[in-house]
Amino acid sequence: MILINLLPHRELARKHRKEQFSLGLGLSVLMGILLALLVYLWFQAQISDQQDRNQLLKAEITKFDAQIKDIAGLEAEIAALLARQQAVENLQADRNMPVHLLTELVQQLPEGVFMNSLQQNGQNVVLVGVAQSNERVSELLRNLARNSTWLTSPELVEIVAGTTSLAPRDVRRVYNFQVKAKLTRASEAPRTPASQVPAQKSSTPAADAVAR
User: Fold this and answer.
1) CB-CB contact of 178 with 126 (8 Å)
2) What distance lies between CA 136 and its chain's CA centroid?
3) Are the C-beta atoms of 203 and 146 separated by less than 8 Å?
4) What is the pTM of this model?
5) pLDDT digits over 120-146, tens only?
6) Order of strands across the sheet with 151-167?
């Protein structure tokens, strides 16, 4: 007996292939969506972890900034305390400066030189006096430059010739001078007095100028 299939088998086969293709396409799309979702969730987890680490770093940085500010404040306080300590030490060391200054002048003033006034402004000293001759002023400058421990860098400001009357008939020629010098602090003074150092042969320019 011969059987004849009268159904449109080709159409059925085509329909079956379309259904399989649609099912495969749907599964591929679904797998793609799931894969994209997994990748997205993974990236979100990585971003979240990085944000947590960033927050931790920010918290640590804030803590370190506060510690740095505290350290800077302590350093400023230490510097202020050191400055106060130095100021107190300078004041204690400078209490005897007038005594040193007057003693030094007594030791370094040569014969024939007389002081009229003495002015001190900080470490600057101005000496105003009268000398019998230019050589006496020159000797004073040399003594201050070579032998003085507390007075340094002597500089002749001016010297003016004049006269003085010791008696009605005794008029003598004198020289009015003004000298500037630097006063050495007690903390800066050398341990060995300069008077113990051998005298140098060369004289100071100011002294040579006066001598000439």
Assistant:
1) yes
2) 45
3) no
4) 0.48
5) 887 899 999 999 888 999 999 999 988
6) 113-121, 124-131, 170-183, 151-167
